[in-house]
Amino acid sequence: MIEERGISHFRSKEVPHNLSTAFRRSGLSPMAKRLFLVLPAALLLVGTARGQYISADTYTRYELLAPDSHQFKIYYEVTQTRPGARFYFNPIREGSEASDESVIDPATSKPLKFEVVTGAQAKTDEPGENFSPTGKYIKIYLAHPVPAAGEYRLIIIKTYRDDKSYYQDGDLIVFKRSLTIPRNSVVLPAGFEVVSSSVSAQVVPETDGRLKLGFVNPGSGGPLEVLIKARRLSRPSAKGGS
To answer: Is the pTM of this model over 0.70?
Structure first.
């Protein structure tokens, strides 16, 4: 997967030492030269003010399983950035039945310990966070605390069963879900083609032939209402001779 880099990765050492010489030979107007010097500094300040957290690096992949199962497998990539944090809490959406959970540390490819807790239990570990008391959360034990000015990347894998989000409508399958993650993809079951999508998406084939719809949430943390419809590919009829 291609990781996105933010403004905070900019380094002043990337500016050549002979910049003044280059300016004299460039023929740029005085205003253009001032903008060239001021803009990178402003961008660097923005990156510093926002810290290392880049919201666009959060990514979710939904793999739709057999239509009559109402199940879809989720791969959720997220970063814990709070210095000193020893846990990460991933909410289990109300109305969805979770199963087959696992958590991977991508830096080591090793599994991480986790357990399912209530919001009230999570509050005892993270009193400053806003947990729903009756909600359920996957409590993930990090292999080490998040260092100052550092981060901890996670891959959370789980299967949801939700007949209100994934169901059949005649000869169509429907995936209908409100998503808040910045980057998402939905992979159709094998042998299905896209009929419609409520969001602009890039449709690309997987190596196994399944179709994947990739899209982004252009909002600032608000939900993106996703409605995708697909149907089974019709098999070409056999041509017989007479």
So the answer is: yes
